[in-house]
Amino acid sequence: MTNVKRASDDAIKTTGLNLIRILLASYLIASALGLAQGPHGGPLAAPFLGEELGRSVGGGVYFLLAFFLLCGIKLRVMALSLAAMTLASGFVMIFAHNALLEVFWRDLAIVAALMLTYLAPDRRALKHSAIFRRSPKVRRVEMSDRIVPRRVTVKDGLAARSEPRRARLVSAATADAPLGKGDLARLRLNFLDVEDELEVTNIFADLDKRAVA
Fold first, then answer.
1. Which regions span the lipid bilayer (predicted)?
2. CB 3.0-4.6 Å disulfide test: which of 46, 72, 118, 205 passes with 130?
3. Going by C-beta distance under 8 Å and a sequence separation of 6 or more, which residues neighbour residue 101?
């Protein structure tokens, strides 16, 4: 019962965090596109690229990070990158553009929400929070041909040993008449199977005779 309740609480927690992430990412996308007032990353690129081009480049990078956060792709990396970019943009707005303090407090609230998204989910929740994910499937492998092992027959006794072959010259000429050139040309080499004769020598025979004597 306790495990079921814990699993239910984890599911509710994961669902709530996903809703917060989607709402926060949608707001950051709108602010990056200029549809709402909010952080957009333009103040970070403006000193290097100018006001208009810096707004476009910073807003484009901010939009991509927020979109990946919305889709759940590399969730912790995207949340940490957006938090660092938002905090740095807030500092630049305060010290370089003399913005109001409420802008900095707004950016701090966004950073806190991003850190909540970064720290809360476990590894399993991170996998299920992604919109585009690949679920592994078990693939069944079918064998086309059945493999039958080959039977090996072993011979008994001396026949199991590999028997050497000896070469022997056989003359086609008659045995009594002397060999001519034609007879020498008709000589051929035949390989005949000759069984080895095993000669067993008892090295203890003399000892046995002495013991009997």
1. 12-33, 53-70, 77-97, 103-120
2. 72
3. 94
CA distance 73 to 130: 6
List beta partners, residue 192.
Answer: 166
Q: Is the pLDDT of residue 124 over 50?
A: yes
Q: Encoding tokens for residue 84?
A: 């660092």
pTM of the model: 0.54
* Residue owning tokens 């929740």: 125
Query: Would you state the torsion angle of the CA atoms of residues 138, 139, 140, 141, taken in this order, to the nearest 10 degrees?
Result: -140
pLDDT digits (tens, 9 = 90+) for 25-77: 899 999 888 888 888 888 888 888 887 888 888 888 999 999 988 888 888 88
Residue 86 and residue 84: Cα distance in Å, rounded? 6
For the beta carbon of residue 14, count every other beta carbon within 10 angstroms: 18
Question: Do the Cβ atoms of 20 and 116 come closer than 8 Å?
Answer: yes
